[in-house]
Amino acid sequence: MRRVKLPFATQNEGKIKESKRVLSQYGIEVVPIALDISEPDAGSIEHVTREKLRQVRGMGVDRAMVDDAGIFFAAYHQFPGVLSKRVFQGIGYRGVMKLLAGETRQAWFEGGIGLLWDGEEVFFSARTRGRLLESLPAGVTPDPGFPFDALFVPEGEHRTLAEMLPAERERFSYRVVALKELAEWLRRREGSGNS
Ligand SMILES: O=c1[nH]c(=O)c2ncn([C@@H]3O[C@H](COP(=O)(O)OP(=O)(O)OP(=O)(O)O)[C@@H](O)[C@H]3O)c2[nH]1
């Protein structure tokens, strides 16, 4: 596939780093763009992702990617989900620990990626299951954009996502799964006839 530029409408540094790393392997150059998008505070990840895409389209952009993601605690119903950012900003690790005291630690991440490509809209999604530790492991400095990575141990692992190198983390990242699907879609779309 010839190199393509993919504008990414996000303010989250963690999402930018992860998507650049994955998509550069496919010849896709992620270019962050700052757009003023207001996020609905209810509904599914797919609903919020599609709503972000709708707003981007409304700004006259014809090629862009958006990402919406969140963590879901098995102890609660669809929570915090699309509210993950706001809930964490409000209650921090101390509040999360209180919410989960005496409850199942099972949790999953769910992420949606929306692609707007020459007027066409495509949605990709994936999940990663795991559990949340009862406290932050010693020596881990949480990434402000990905605070739950510091507590989240994916199924089949004993380390948190934050303790893994980026390349190791790829095996467990729902975002990477969705990004790879997006890359394959773009390869099919842009691939033929190009070097
Ligand atoms: O530990 C984490 N590892 C991840 O991989 C991850 N992905 C999402 N999240 C959390 O869920 C919120 C979603 O927020 P979100 O999708 O609304 O994004 P955001 O507002 O940060 O950026 P934007 O893309 O909307 O500009 C984020 O703030 C984080 O708290 C993650 N936490």
UniProtKB/TrEMBL annotation:
It holds the Pfam family Ham1p_like. Keywords: Hydrolase. InterPro entries: ITPase-like_fam (IPR029001), RdgB/HAM1 (IPR002637). GO terms for biological process: nucleoside triphosphate catabolic process. It comes from the Bacteria. GO terms for molecular function: nucleoside triphosphate diphosphatase activity. One of its GO terms (cellular component) is cytoplasm. Belongs to the HAM1 NTPase family. This is Non-canonical purine NTP pyrophosphatase. The lineage of its organism: Bacteria, Bacillati, Bacillota, Bacilli, Bacillales.
